[in-house]
């Protein structure tokens, strides 16, 4: 169950990061509210997952899910560049997160 909580926490991190971008510096009410709500939910789920998962593994995977998700959303919704160096960087994050998951007991 901890892995599911961690996955949801990571996905909620993507939601709040995207909403934060859309809030334009917290100048728009709805995206700002979504940011705060999903940020709180993400932290709560991360804390629950950390009850049983190692700190380093849980936190790193949470950040990795958020970073990869934000990267994908940035490319799709905000037209951010998709070049070989950025793809390699994301592949390295995925590789590291996968290794942490596989090596966790």
Automatic annotation (TrEMBL):
Annotated membrane topology: Multi-pass membrane protein
Membrane-spanning residues: 27-49, 61-79, 85-103
Gene Ontology biological process terms in this record: xenobiotic detoxification by transmembrane export across the plasma membrane
Pfam families associated with the record: Multi_Drug_Res
Highest taxon of source: Bacteria
Subcellular location: Cell membrane
Single GO term (MF): transmembrane transporter activity
Listed InterPro entries: EmrE-like, Small_drug/metabolite_transptr, Small_multidrug_res
Keywords: Cell membrane, Membrane, Transmembrane, Transmembrane helix, Transport
GO cellular component: plasma membrane
Family indicated by similarity: Belongs to the drug/metabolite transporter (DMT) superfamily. Small multidrug resistance (SMR) (TC 2.A.7.1) family. Gdx/SugE subfamily.
PANTHER family in the record: GUANIDINIUM EXPORTER (PTHR30561:SF0), SMR FAMILY PROTON-DEPENDENT DRUG EFFLUX TRANSPORTER SUGE (PTHR30561)
Name assigned to this protein: Guanidinium exporter
